[in-house]
Automatic annotation (TrEMBL):
<dbReference type="GO" id="GO:0008270">
    <property type="term" value="F:zinc ion binding"/>
</dbReference>
<keyword id="KW-0479">Metal-binding</keyword>
<dbReference type="InterPro" id="IPR013087">
    <property type="entry name" value="Znf_C2H2_type"/>
</dbReference>
<feature type="domain" description="C2H2-type">
    <location>
        <begin position="110"/>
        <end position="134"/>
    </location>
</feature>
<keyword id="KW-0863">Zinc-finger</keyword>
<dbReference type="InterPro" id="IPR036236">
    <property type="entry name" value="Znf_C2H2_sf"/>
</dbReference>
<feature type="region of interest" description="Disordered">
    <location>
        <begin position="50"/>
        <end position="112"/>
    </location>
</feature>
<protein>
    <submittedName>
        <fullName>LOW QUALITY PROTEIN: uncharacterized protein LOC117545945</fullName>
    </submittedName>
</protein>
<keyword id="KW-0862">Zinc</keyword>
Length: 134
């Protein structure tokens, strides 16, 4: 991410007539991909990375104009994005844990009269009880 932002800043600071800059700008302004379309390429990532790092497209140019401040912004942005990613990972794993422990404590439980096993649904209990009939 940091490298992407560094490269992006480099290109934004290029003179407007340089080809890489023209191509990038065409993509940033007009680039719209169909849902489920082609795989993300580097230049697609270049659109997403600043967003993830809290750098909004309109301020991109001003931000990149000054190299030292762009570096600082990139560094902070990458840290921010990394924290956000970590938070989401944590939230995801907590949700997973919760979902695992939930069936025993919430919702209507269908308890097997033979062995006391709790099933999540009536049909689940039914098919479980068939194992006792053999
Ligand atoms: Zn049973």
């Amino acid at each position: 991410m940091h490298h992407q932002l560094g490269w992006l800043g480099h290109i934004i600071r290029m003179p407007a007539n340089r080809l890489p800059r023209k191509i990038l700008y065409g993509q940033l302004h007009l680039g719209q991909r169909s849902a489920g379309g082609p795989k993300k390429r580097l230049k697609d990532k270049l659109k997403i990375t600043p967003k993830k790092c809290g750098i909004k497209p309109p301020s991109l140019e001003d931000a990149a104009a000054d190299r030292p401040s762009w570096r600082g912004l990139s560094q902070k942005g990458v840290q921010l994005a990394e924290e956000e990613r970590r938070k989401q990972c944590l939230a995801k794993s907590q949700r997973r844990k919760l979902a695992q422990s939930a069936p025993a404590t919430s919702g209507p439980a269908y308890t097997c009269p033979d062995c006391g096993r709790r099933c999540k649904s009536r049909i689940g209990l039914y098919s479980h009880q068939r194992t006792h009939k053999q």
